[in-house]
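Sample entry copied in:
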Amino acid sequence: MTTPDAVPLSGPRFQTEPARLYREMRRDHGSVVPVLLDGDIPAWLVLGYRELHQVTGDPVLFSRDSDLWNQWENIPADWPLLPMIGRKQPSILYTVGERHRQRAAMVSNALEAVDPFEMRGHAERFADELIDALCAAGEADLIAQYAMLLPVRVLARLYGFSDEEGPGLVTALNDMIDGRERALAGQAHLAGSMARLVADRRKEPADDVVSRMLADDSGFSDEEIVQDLMVMMAAGHQPTADWIGNSLRLMLTDDRFAASLFGGRNSVAEAMNEVLWEDTPTQNVAGRWAARDTRLGGRAVRAGDLLLLGLQGANSDPQVRTDASELTGGNNAHFSFGHGEHRCPFPAQEVAEVIARTGIEVVLDRLPDIDLAVPADSLTRRPSPWLRGLTRLPVRFSPVPAR
């Protein structure tokens, strides 16, 4: 399936100008783009809104079963994308068919039972603690000192961890996501912590997400539940942290949201939804595998080919984003949470939204006259084609005492 004009899915343009890059890909290749992953491994990047809807809506033809991949013989044991495109991973990400539906129901039911008022209370408390640690300085980096610390603390509390275990989980998860020398140690810490929590709740249930998952009668093993908890923690933390950071960046750099910085709150939800359309934290997702030869967007897709879900590219597809069609505001037809039976469960979306919105509102409530401390055009993003978030968000404000 390799084509001579395949586009490398790497490089600084994913950091500096992804919107223009996706437009060029669509102009040169259409809605289904041949790309090369690390090590020149071929794949397809689906940028068309309708084509992505087709791929995510047909789990039989476009399967989540990575065993179908026709490139496994070319994948080295140390391939850096293996954690993202693993083989035989016993998690909800790679389960298909009826077993996946049972597993998704277990996760959704456990999250749906979370009390939204209690969850918001946890989010406010942890957010206030983080602001207390920086508010007297008059300046801060809202990524490293705030956004990257908040979601995992709230999720840990909902799952059943004690508050004392929260900081260690924050460090471990951020190390794992960082993908550097501490990544494997972070993954081991997270896995060990989840396994201990599951074992504890198996002996002594409580009113938390883990206990509700263990009470499910579908017969999932403790190992499967540990794997799902790790997926839930990683998928719930980093995109939510980037949702907070990207929304605050928008509100601090766009005059349309100036009123929200001085006491108004109507624009917070609008900014958050605009980010999901225009600057979504999860840009591209791996993936789906073709169960048989087929055609998609005019391309001949072979059995076993890998298709990457171009969420941001589909959100900006000109066939659905015309000049006469303004799709931000209250429109939620974006792909930022995926689509189909493998989309982010609705209760998980609600958890992420409560954490992100609470985090943004606490910043605006607690830090008067907040403003960027650097020129807006100097803000940089992590150089990743997968997740899009700021490397830092320096701000200044009048110092205030901790509560």
User: Anything to note?
Assistant: Residues 13 and 305 are 25 Å apart (CA to CA). The mean pLDDT is 88. The domain at 7-378+386-396 is CATH 1.10.630.10 (Cytochrome p450).
